[in-house]
Design goal:
Elements: H1 2-20, E1 26-31, E2 34-39, H2 58-61, H3 68-81, H4 83-278, H5 292-297, E3 304-309, E4 316-322, E5 330-336, H6 347-352, E6 354-355, E7 361-362, H7 365-374, E8 377-385, E9 390-400, E10 409-416, H8 445-449, E11 461-462, E12 481-482, H9 483-486, E13 492-501
Antiparallel strand pairs: 1-2, 3-4, 4-5, 5-7, 5-13, 6-7, 8-9, 8-13, 9-10, 11-12
The protein binds 2-acetamido-2-deoxy-beta-D-glucopyranose (NAG) (6 copies).
One 2-acetamido-2-deoxy-beta-D-glucopyranose is lined by residues 311-312, 374.
Length: 504
């Protein structure tokens, strides 16, 4: 529309141009990019034709088809001819002018309108271009988005790839873990099997241990039994040793006794000779002391061997008199000092006595009975141990029965230093030897303890036991014993039993 208008205007201008080329007034209009040229008609040259009419239409505006020369000439002629016509002409011109101006205004309006529409067109074109640009941009964006989506799909595929790979790895891992689990299961089974085996072995071990413990206990008890046996055997052996010692002593003793006998025989012979010599000397009353107390009272104060004549008897006995101990006058019944004499003898030996008064000696039960029953006697027992300690026990009333009563013991009114209690058995205890068992034991004390003594069961004393030459840690039941002084294991080096009248 706009373009059509422009064309139209251009065409109009072309049509007008030859007519108004030289002197006509030109109007230029500039509107935006477009410029418009209007050529206004000249009044002085115009001579109005009859059919010339100025209209406000464009067709009317077009120059009259009369050539300008003719027109001018016509006008000029009109002016020259008639001034009223001219005036009329002027007026018509003025109205034409007015019309033209109106037309111009209209045109202007129209142009303005057109311009506005052009503007709108321009705006529309601008919108078009903008939309085109937008479209381009859109396409660009679309392409870009397509690119992006492509990239995105790439990324997605990559991600998918990664995830699939990860899934594969996961699968592999799960497979691996499954395998591991299987392995672990197998291992645990193995372990449980091993532990079962171990517990079984432990049970076996326990059983073996208990068995061995029982066996060990049995062995230990056997060992203890064996030890006891050995102890008993050793005791037996020691006893046998003692017996062996005494028997060896026996043989040597026999020899020494023989020597002593020959000695005494020679002495006797010498004395007989002497007697023969002093037979001429006025005969004195024959000495007949019944004990050493009498000998002491007769003035003899030297300890030694003397002969006494037992009361109510013609029988004389050689005795050792102790003239020193507690005033002297002691008749010795028993004496031991070096173990040279065997005291493990039978009933008869103890009955008649054995040994020599000069050495180890037993006076004899018959003699003791006769002596101690002739009057009241005191018994004095002297003891000396291996360390040289001395002690004594004294009984102010002492005697023994005769053989009818198996030489029963009567010893009372005890005193002394060898123990607070009497080690002799109580009154009435019979005498026992290895061949006459009168003790109150089911055993045979004389054989167990050896020697002849007043054993009860078997009692706390035995001064006629075996004389052991040296002390020993082994408990001996058959040695010399005085229990309440030194206990069961007393090592006596010296013992003496002696009597003197209680009223001495
Ligand atoms: C002006 O226009 C009016 C109406 O169109 C017309 O009647 C009149 O004659 C015109 N005047 C001239 C001088 O052409
Ligand atoms: C994943 O990517 C690797 C290389 O990065 C390629 O070799 C493989 O074939 C791809 N796998 C899939 C399933 O696309
Ligand atoms: C010792 O000799 C006497 C005889 O002298 C004898 O009776 C006694 O049995 C002997 N003792 C031992 C232990 O052999
Ligand atoms: C024991 O003593 C007597 C008398 O002193 C003596 O003859 C004898 O040789 C002594 N015996 C021993 C073994 O010492
Ligand atoms: C000694 O013998 C006489 C008679 O023979 C007798 O009367 C007296 O009691 C006896 N004395 C002793 C101690 O035995
Ligand atoms: C003395 O001992 C013997 C045997 O050893 C016995 O038969 C007798 O009865 C005893 N005598 C007394 C009085 O106990």
């Amino acid at each position: 529309m706009f373009r059509l208008l422009v064309l139209y205007l251009a065409y109009l201008a072309y049509l007008l141009s030859p007519a108004i080329s030289s002197e006509r007034q030109q109007h230029h209009l500039q509107h935006g990019l477009c410029s418009y040229t209007f050529i206004l008609p000249e009044v002085e040259h115009c001579h109005p034709s009859n059919d010339f009419q100025v209209t406000n239409t464009l067709q009317r505006d077009s120059p009259p088809e009369v050539s300008p020369d003719t027109g001018q000439s016509k006008l000029g002629k009109a002016q020259k001819e008639r001034p009223s016509w001219q005036e009329k002409k002027l007026e018509s011109l003025e109205s034409a002018m007015e019309n033209n101006t109106q037309w111009l205004q209209k045109l202007e309006n129209f142009i303005q309108e057109n311009v506005r529409s052009g503007m709108e067109e321009m705006k529309r074109t601008a919108v078009h271009t903008q939309t085109a640009a937008m479209l381009e941009m859109g396409t660009n964006l679309l392409s870009q988005s397509a690119e992006q989506t492509r990239k995105l799909t790439d990324v997605e595929t990559q991600v998918l790839n990664q995830t699939s790979r990860l899934e594969i790895q996961l699968l592999e891992y799960s497979l691996f873990t499954n395998q591991l689990e299987k392995h672990i299961l197998q291992q645990t089974q193995e372990i449980s099997r091993l532990s079962d085996k171990n517990s079984f072995l432990e049970q076996r071990l326990l059983a073996l241990e208990t068995q061995y413990g029982r066996e060990l206990q049995g062995l230990e008890s056997e060992k203890q039994q064996l030890q006891e046996l050995v102890e008993r055997q050793s005791q037996l052996v020691s006893r046998l040793q003692g017996e062996l010692g005494s028997s060896t002593l026996n043989s040597t003793l026999l020899q020494s006794q023989q020597a002593v006998l020959t000695d005494t025989v020679q002495q006797l012979l010498a004395r007989v000779n002497k007697c023969d010599e002093i037979s001429n000397v006025p005969k004195r009353e024959p000495l007949s002391f019944r004990d050493c107390a009498e000998i002491l009272q007769s003035g003899v104060t030297e300890s030694g061997i003397y002969i006494i004549r037992l009361p109510n008897s013609t029988h004389t006995v050689k005795v050792f008199c102790d003239m020193k101990t507690q005033g002297g006058g002691w008749t010795v019944l028993q004496h031991r000092r070096n173990g040279s004499l065997d005291f493990h003898r039978g009933w008869r030996d103890y009955k008649v006595g054995f040994g020599e008064p000069s050495g180890e000696h037993w006076l004899g039960n018959d003699n003791i009975h006769k002596l101690t029953t002739s009057q009241e006697y005191s018994l004095h027992i002297q003891l000396k141990d291996s360390e040289g300690n001395e002690a004594f026990s004294q009984y102010d009333h002492f005697y023994i029965d005769g053989e009818d009563n198996n030489y029963s013991l009567h010893a009372e009114r005890f005193s002394g230093t060898a123990g607070r209690t009497s080690s002799l058995t109580h009154t009435g205890t019979e005498f026992s030897t290895k061949d006459r068992d009168n003790d109150r034991c089911t055993c045979k004390c004389a054989q167990l303890a050896s020697g002849g003594w007043w054993f009860e069961a078997c009692g706390p004393s035995n001064l006629n036991g075996i004389y052991y030459p040296s002390s020993s840690s082994v408990v001996r039941y058959n040695g010399i014993k005085w229990y309440y002084w030194k206990g069961p294991n007393f090592m006596a080096t010296m013992t003496t039993m002696m009597v003197r009248p209680a009223n001495f």
